[in-house]
Specification:
The protein is mostly helical. The protein has a domain at 39-215. Helices cover 81% and strands 0% of the residues. α1 (3-35) packs antiparallel against α8 and α3 packs parallel to α7 (182-209). The longest helix is centred in the C-terminal third of the chain and has 55 residues, at 220-274. Residues 277-288 and 292-306 have low confidence and may be disordered.
Length: 306
């Protein structure tokens, strides 16, 4: 299997895993909030991040990835900013309709491109610009026709978009500057994201739902769905790591096989060059393939006619 095919299989597997994990966690959270009336989204997200950090720590101890320390100020700022963006997105959902909230999330993509163009000097092709223009047109039409639009919800959505865009740009910048993978960055920033949401989550949830997360009736069914939701949120990380390990193993195995085949061919060439009998025979006779007499074909044909 070639490198291109392996890359395609890895991409397909990652996309499939992303879709499956996203759909699973949406179904689980929907049952938790709609059926069981556990409406503390920000607090639940902080638990997700906490479990994700614990899972990554276990993976680090198992040497599934390498720990790499870098600028702590950048990590803290990145983690806190990510936590704030999650909180603002939840507030945006609380003060806006679901349709407007989805439009807010779609607006993150073109806004990120705009910020990268203005402040980082990046240039994008006309095809990308045309696609983003259509996306912005759809967002604008949906925003104008939304009857539940309000000033506070719009301001919160704007802040959510800005913080999320800056967080995404910081992700790319930190990874390129310090040469760290997404897993290493997530492991470093998860504690600060989780801490930000653990502190602000109960207040935001109470502000949105008029309920206290600490006074909620935690039945066995609620606890089961909370645990399941947390496990699904970090399961994709573990599966992705296993996939990376298998991919690295097979790549290494294939490289070793190619190296062994190359070494065998080189050894055969060296043996042929160092064989004295072959050298003496070639030196004494000086014959080539063209000098060797060959059996005449016409005689056999003549015999057949006879």
């Amino acid at each position: 299997m070639g490198e291109g095919q392996k890359f395609q299989l890895g991409t397909i597997g990652a996309l499939t895993l992303s879709v499956v994990s996203s759909v699973s966690i949406v179904i689980c959270n929907k049952a938790l909030m709609s059926s069981l009336h556990f409406n503390f989204a920000t607090t639940l997200t902080s638990w997700h991040l906490l479990v994700t950090f614990c899972s990554l720590h276990v993976a680090l101890k198992m040497k599934l990835f390498e720990h790499k320390s870098f600028d702590r100020k950048a990590v803290i700022g990145f983690g806190i900013l990510n936590g704030i963006s999650i909180g603002l997105l939840n507030l945006s959902l609380g003060f806006n309709s679901v349709g407007f909230y989805q439009m807010t999330k779609l607006a993150i993509i073109p806004c990120t491109v705009l910020l990268e163009t203005l402040f980082l000097g990046k240039r994008f092709s006309k095809k990308i610009q045309f696609s983003l223009g259509i996306l912005l047109l759809g967002v604008g039409i949906a925003t104008v026709t939304d009857l539940q639009l309000n000033v506070l919800g719009s301001v919160l959505s704007l802040l959510a978009v800005i913080t999320t865009c800056v967080a995404q740009i910081m992700t790319n910048t930190i990874q390129k500057k310090f040469k760290v993978s997404s897993t290493q960055l997530l492991y470093q920033s998860c504690p600060y994201q989780s801490a930000t949401l653990l502190i602000s989550g109960p207040f935001l949830d109470k502000f949105l739902t008029n309920q206290n997360v600490f006074n909620f009736n935690y039945t066995t069914e609620v606890l089961v769905f909370i645990i399941l939701s947390c496990l699904i949120s970090c399961l994709w990380i573990l599966i992705a790591m296993v996939g990376m390990i298998l991919y690295s193993y097979y790549c290494t195995l294939e490289s070793q096989q190619k190296a062994a085949e190359g070494a065998a061919q080189q050894s055969q060439v060296r043996e042929a060059e160092s064989d004295p009998l072959i050298n003496v025979e070639n030196a004494s006779t000086g014959l080539t393939d063209n000098d060797i007499p060959k059996a005449s074909v016409w005689r056999s044909n003549k015999d057949l006619h006879a």
